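go over my protein:
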Amino acid sequence: MANYTYGNVTASNGVNLRFIKTSPNNTTLQAINANVTDTDYYGVNGGFFYNTDILSIAVVNDQPVKGNPGDYDSGWYNETYDRGTLIWDPVARVYSIVVIGSASDITVTDPDQYWAQGGISMSLQDDSNWYNQAVNVEHMPNPDGNAHRTALVYNTGLNIWYIITPTSCTAGQFRSAIKEKIGSGTLVDGIFLDGGGSSQMQCAEYSYSGDGRVVREMVRLITP
């Protein structure tokens, strides 16, 4: 019995979505120096990076995925800008998205039990202000160009979806497609992750290598 569900849906705006739906307790973050499709993991690409530096928060149980707490390029910081960060607190059984610059700003029930992935706020409940938040406040790269894109979203039932689109589209088109086709009206919120050639996915049913590039961090299933 698989611990995830794979799906392939196309929205009315033509954006094709591929998703892995799982539970937050079956989700973790992993430092990699590889294309997602060249790893043994099922999941999607994670946050932003530059060369080998991880530029988005990627923390599991108060430890960055690479190096030590407080280290530059380790996954401890959303470098340069405060950005939307998705946190799962398994003790309280609650997700939150907070706009922060450092994992030092995270508050959870038990610091030894949580994960936090930095990205860009999707503001799924705020159609009038999401663009201003994502672009002007959080400095989302390439919001209006046509690019492949990656996101994490969650719903009232505490499910999490890892989503990519192999369709070149704007951030707004990707967001609209997700709102239309994922979660049957139960979505609460989500974050955009790195996109373009970094958008990558691997599971038993589907493999997508983006432009073939190496990425530095991924969101993955603990048990496929």
In short: The first helix runs from residue 130 to 137. The mean pLDDT is 98. The chain is about 10% helix and 40% strand. The first strand starts at residue 5 and ends at 10.
